[in-house]
Backbone:
Protein backbone atom coordinates (compact mmCIF):
# COMPACT_ATOMS: atom_id res chain seq x y z
CA UNK A 1 0.00 0.00 0.00
CA UNK A 2 1.53 3.31 -1.09
CA UNK A 3 1.69 5.98 1.57
CA UNK A 4 2.30 8.85 -0.82
CA UNK A 5 1.95 10.15 -4.35
CA UNK A 6 5.03 10.75 -6.50
CA UNK A 7 5.81 14.46 -6.86
CA UNK A 8 9.38 14.90 -8.14
CA UNK A 9 12.86 13.53 -8.69
CA UNK A 10 15.47 15.69 -6.91
CA UNK A 11 18.94 16.16 -8.38
CA UNK A 12 21.75 18.01 -6.56
CA UNK A 13 23.78 20.30 -8.83
CA UNK A 14 26.49 22.94 -8.65
CA UNK A 15 25.06 24.82 -11.64
CA UNK A 16 23.45 28.23 -11.28
CA UNK A 17 19.68 27.79 -11.41
CA UNK A 18 17.40 30.16 -13.30
CA UNK A 19 14.06 30.98 -11.69
CA UNK A 20 14.99 29.12 -8.53
CA UNK A 21 13.30 29.38 -5.16
CA UNK A 22 15.52 29.93 -2.11
CA UNK A 23 14.73 28.00 1.07
CA UNK A 24 16.59 29.89 3.78
CA UNK A 25 16.33 27.27 6.54
CA UNK A 26 18.00 24.66 4.30
CA UNK A 27 20.33 27.11 2.50
CA UNK A 28 19.30 25.65 -0.85
CA UNK A 29 18.11 26.99 -4.20
CA UNK A 30 15.57 24.73 -5.92
CA UNK A 31 13.79 24.71 -9.26
CA UNK A 32 10.06 24.08 -9.60
CA UNK A 33 9.62 20.40 -10.48
CA UNK A 34 6.00 20.99 -11.52
CA UNK A 35 7.26 23.10 -14.42
CA UNK A 36 9.75 20.46 -15.61
CA UNK A 37 8.46 17.99 -18.23
CA UNK A 38 9.71 15.04 -16.16
CA UNK A 39 9.14 16.51 -12.68
CA UNK A 40 12.85 17.02 -12.03
CA UNK A 41 13.80 19.39 -9.22
CA UNK A 42 17.39 20.67 -9.26
CA UNK A 43 18.94 21.65 -5.93
CA UNK A 44 22.01 23.86 -5.40
CA UNK A 45 23.16 23.93 -1.79
CA UNK A 46 25.06 26.85 -0.32
CA UNK A 47 28.17 26.23 1.79
CA UNK A 48 27.15 25.57 5.38
CA UNK A 49 23.78 24.09 4.46
CA UNK A 50 22.41 22.16 7.45
CA UNK A 51 20.90 19.50 5.19
CA UNK A 52 22.13 15.93 5.62
CA UNK A 53 25.10 14.96 3.41
CA UNK A 54 23.01 12.33 1.58
CA UNK A 55 20.42 14.96 0.60
CA UNK A 56 23.19 17.25 -0.67
CA UNK A 57 25.02 14.57 -2.67
CA UNK A 58 22.47 11.98 -3.84
CA UNK A 59 19.32 12.07 -5.90
CA UNK A 60 16.00 11.59 -4.16
CA UNK A 61 12.37 10.91 -4.96
CA UNK A 62 9.77 13.24 -3.44
CA UNK A 63 6.30 12.12 -2.38
CA UNK A 64 3.24 13.98 -1.12
CA UNK A 65 1.83 12.25 1.96
CA UNK A 66 -1.48 13.00 3.69
CA UNK A 67 0.09 13.15 7.18
CA UNK A 68 3.84 13.66 7.55
CA UNK A 69 4.02 12.64 11.19
CA UNK A 70 2.24 9.36 10.47
CA UNK A 71 4.39 8.67 7.41
CA UNK A 72 7.59 9.11 9.47
CA UNK A 73 6.66 6.53 12.10
CA UNK A 74 9.18 3.68 12.06
CA UNK A 75 11.29 5.33 9.32
CA UNK A 76 14.99 6.18 9.30
CA UNK A 77 14.63 9.98 9.44
CA UNK A 78 17.75 11.86 8.30
CA UNK A 79 16.18 15.36 8.16
CA UNK A 80 13.53 16.13 10.75
CA UNK A 81 10.33 17.87 9.57
CA UNK A 82 10.62 21.56 8.74
CA UNK A 83 8.59 24.19 6.91
CA UNK A 84 10.12 24.42 3.44
CA UNK A 85 7.49 26.93 2.31
CA UNK A 86 4.24 28.29 3.72
CA UNK A 87 2.46 25.46 1.89
CA UNK A 88 4.88 22.54 2.45
CA UNK A 89 6.23 20.76 5.51
CA UNK A 90 8.95 18.25 4.57
CA UNK A 91 11.31 15.62 5.97
CA UNK A 92 13.84 13.22 4.47
CA UNK A 93 14.25 9.51 5.16
CA UNK A 94 16.34 6.67 3.85
CA UNK A 95 14.93 3.32 2.83
CA UNK A 96 17.87 1.04 2.13
CA UNK A 97 20.03 3.03 -0.29
CA UNK A 98 17.14 5.26 -1.40
CA UNK A 99 16.82 8.85 -0.19
CA UNK A 100 13.18 9.96 -0.04
CA UNK A 101 11.57 13.32 0.64
CA UNK A 102 8.15 13.19 2.26
CA UNK A 103 6.03 16.32 1.93
CA UNK A 104 2.75 17.35 3.51
CA UNK A 105 0.69 20.10 1.88
CA UNK A 106 -1.18 22.47 4.17
Residues:
Amino acid sequence: MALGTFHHYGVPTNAELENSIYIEEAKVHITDAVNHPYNVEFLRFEPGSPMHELVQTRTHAGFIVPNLDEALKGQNVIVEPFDATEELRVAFITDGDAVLELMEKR
Remarks:
- The first helix runs from residue 53 to 57.
